[in-house]
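Hi support team,

I submitted a single chain yesterday and got back a structure, but I'm not sure I'm reading the token output correctly. Could someone confirm the output below corresponds to the sequence I sent? I've pasted both exactly as they appear in my results page.

Thanks,
R.
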Amino acid sequence: MNVKAESYAFLGDVRGAARGGTTARVISALREAIVSLELQPGTQLDKVALCQRLGVSRFPVSEALSRLQAEGLVEIRPQSGTIVSLIRLGDVRENLFLRRALEAEAVRSLAREIHPDVLAALQRNIRYQKAAASAGDPAGFHKLDLDFHDIIFTALGFDRVKATVESARMGLDRIRRLLASKRRHKLTYDEHEKIVTAIVAGDGEAAAAAMISHLDAVMAELLTLAHKQPEIFADRPGVPTRAAALAVKAPRKRKP
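Hi R., thanks for writing in. Yes, this is the structure output for that exact sequence:
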């Protein structure tokens, strides 16, 4: 194995995996590496080295990169190769907009009449979140965070709504990892607890407001991070997009 392949030491050989086709396993391995930030935004990807590290031919790697490009996680540049996509604040805003609308309405609906088993599951999840945040267990807290929102949408029973929220959530996975810290986990626990408290009280409006506040807090922290680490964002705060720049430069038509 060459030196370049060794630079992908966090990736494992996928040939021995028992489940799924080769391309699916490559997609899963690369997606996890990107989302977990092992492959940082802007990183140039070496296809040959990836093939060697993963133990596969060029075809599944090429197919995987094409799929990941469709998901917005990589950018394939015909003349200069493939890079891990920079994070787009515009995409984050759109995904949070979807979650804000759908998750606020979901907890508003649940608060009106929630099954005791669902309420018990939420309260149990909150207790475990508190323990994970106190113990400094980021992986455990991340899973519990996902489970918390999953409990809500499973209970709601609308499969298409759940799928839409899941798609938006996947688009936010990288920023969740970027913002992960013991402090953020404690804040998330507090925000989730307020949502559950409102649901227990049967106060749908308070539950919706708490959910909106929770998601808005994530966006506010991301904007702060974008000012501190502008190099990992494609559309940095205060920097106009190409479309906006062209619009500014375009000459105005005089009125007749």
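A quick pointer for reading it: DSSP finds twelve helices and three strands in the chain. Let us know if anything else looks off.

Best,
Support desk
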